[in-house]
Amino acid sequence: MVIQVRSISDADERYLEWIAGDCAQVLGGDVELSALQLASNAEIVLRLAYRLGSATGLTEGRGPNLIAAHVDLRRHLVEDRIRLGFRSLVAP
Description:
It is a single chain. The chain is elongated, with a radius of gyration of 13 Å. The chain is an alpha+beta fold. The chain has a single domain, classed as 2-Layer Sandwich (Double Stranded RNA Binding Domain), CATH 3.30.160. Helix 1 (10-27) runs parallel beside helix 2 (66-90). Strands 1-2-3-4 form a 4-stranded mixed β-sheet. It contains 2 helices and 4 strands, in the order βαβββα.
């Protein structure tokens, strides 16, 4: 997996690595993480790209700081995991 950021502190880089591991746990072992991207404008945006079989996903979390963006990303990933699991059950 690739972590895409501009310039950040060592502490933030370690936290992003921890976020990637946390997201992998939320999505489950059968999901492959492709990239984690950090962007900041008026707010912090975390984007996670992942794949389960032939299905790919891109999920975003937003917040006023990195922790809030992580919480938002995690919430969206839980919803995505439920959606992916349902698709795999009903797919031919």
